[in-house]
Design brief:
This protein is α/β, with parallel strands linked by helices. The protein has a single domain (about 5-230), classed as 4-Layer Sandwich (Metallo-beta-lactamase, Chain A). It has helices at about 35-40, 55-60, 65-70, 75-85, 155-165, 170-180, 185-195, 215-225; strands at about 5-10, 15-20, 25, 45-50, 75, 90, 100, 105-110, 115-125, 130-135, 150, 200-205, 230. The strands form 2 sheets. The chain has a 7-stranded mixed beta sheet with strand order 7-8-9-10-11-12-13, covered by helices on one side. Helix 7 packs parallel to helix 8.
């Protein structure tokens, strides 16, 4: 199995820990590194690597701190260039080319955002198979044999449209949200299109403070999948 711990999620910062009992990885470093250290009881030496999906600050704010702490940080070349960070602990990954960190095999895959962005298919030697995808309005790939999902459910079309009508969300911002984030409706479609027969847990990430409803989202995904759903 894989243990998933959310250290931060949402537009103010994202950081997640996954642990298969042998290898510990951080996905995203979107909060100050000292806060990550505190959340991990300062046991950062046990972290085998950090995966960064893209260059936005709520996903890479803590990169420099992690590098200074001698952690390996894995990013694409475009993300590295966009952050402007240079360090000998940066490890470059390429789209759809597998690499290993400890007992994990990681396959980055492209997703749709307003900068180059990647999801990750992460397989453990213990048989677990985890999918991570956030900050995307669409995932064009299908997956089989998944055991864990960590997937963005940022907004509901209905709630967002209500907020547009009320004037609480500007039309320009709403257009950007729809072009760069996963709606509940699209998440449900994605889940229906994939093999969930082995799935043990679904973690819904990066919910909007104003355009989502935690209980409604959780119930909707449970009804479609029949799986254990967490909203951190």
């Amino acid at each position: 199995m894989v243990i998933i711990k959310t250290l931060a999620t949402g537009s103010t910062g994202n950081c997640y820990l996954i642990d298969d009992g042998e290898t510990r990885l951080l996905i995203e470093l979107g909060i100050q590194f000292k806060k990550i250290q505190q959340a991990l009881n300062y046991e950062t030496s046990k972290i085998s690597g950090c995966l960064i999906s893209h260059s936005h600050q709520d996903h890479c704010k803590g990169v420099q701190g992690a590098l200074n702490a001698s952690l390996d940080v894995y990013m694409s070349k475009a993300t590295t260039d966009e952050t402007g960070i240079e360090h000998n602990r940066i490890r470059l990954y390429e789209n759809k080319k597998q690499f290993r960190i400890g007992t994990f095999t990681i396959l980055p895959f492209d997703v749709k955002h307003d900068v180059e962005n990647h999801g990750f298919l992460i397989q453990s030697d213990n048989g677990s198979k985890l999918l991570f995808a956030t900050d995307t309005y669409y995932v064009k790939y299908k997956f089989s044999g998944l055991t864990h999902l960590m997937i963005e459910a940022n907004y509901s079309e209905a709630i967002l449209n209500e907020n547009i009508e009320r004037g609480t969300i500007h039309g320009f911002l709403a257009k950007r949200i729809k072009a760069s984030h996963f709606s509940l409706e699209n998440v449900l479609g994605f889940l229906k299109a994939n093999d969930l027969s082995r799935v043990q847990e679904i973690h819904l990430l990066h919910l909007s403070n104003t355009n989502s409803d935690e209980e409604m989202f959780k119930k909707a995904v449970q009804e479609v999948t029949g799986k254990l759903v967490f909203v951190p």
